[in-house]
């Protein structure tokens, strides 16, 4: 099982993933796109990357806005897997 980050480790990791914030025991970021279909295309790319990493985010889609929450369910909080997936998602955006 991966080790859960401390609050200080989460804050330090945020420097490596611009746009993400700490939201309790999760990394959180909201993306806004030009329209719904562009937002959905982004979600599909995120889903494919997440599947390849065997690490799946919580997604909330409202029209052209996508909110993503990353946390490792098995560890009960943020781990290095979440930071890696956040960096991958940033590259997809």
Main attributes of the structure:
93 residues, alpha+beta, Gyrase A, domain 2, four-stranded antiparallel β-sheet, 4 strands, 41% helix
What would you say this structure looks like, in words?
The protein is α+β, with helices and mostly antiparallel strands. About 40% of the residues lie in helices and about 20% in strands. The protein is built from three helices and four strands, in the order αββαββα. A four-stranded antiparallel β-sheet has the order 1-2-4-3, covered by helices on one side. A hairpin with a 2-residue loop joins strand 3 and strand 4.
How is the topology of this model organized?
Layout: H1 7-13, E1 21-22, E2 27-32, H2 36-53, E3 58-62, E4 65-70, H3 80-92
Antiparallel strand pairs: 1-2, 2-4, 3-4
Helix pairs in contact: 2-3
């Amino acid at each position: 099982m991966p080790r859960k980050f401390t609050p200080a480790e989460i804050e330090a990791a945020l420097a490596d993933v611009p746009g993400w914030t700490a939201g309790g025991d999760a990394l959180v970021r909201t993306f806004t796109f030009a329209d719904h279909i562009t937002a959905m295309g982004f979600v599909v790319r995120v889903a494919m990357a997440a599947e390849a990493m065997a690490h799946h985010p919580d997604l909330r889609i409202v029209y052209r806005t996508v909110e993503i929450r990353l946390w490792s369910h098995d560890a009960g909080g943020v781990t290095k897997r979440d930071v890696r997936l956040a960096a991958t998602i940033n590259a997809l955006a």
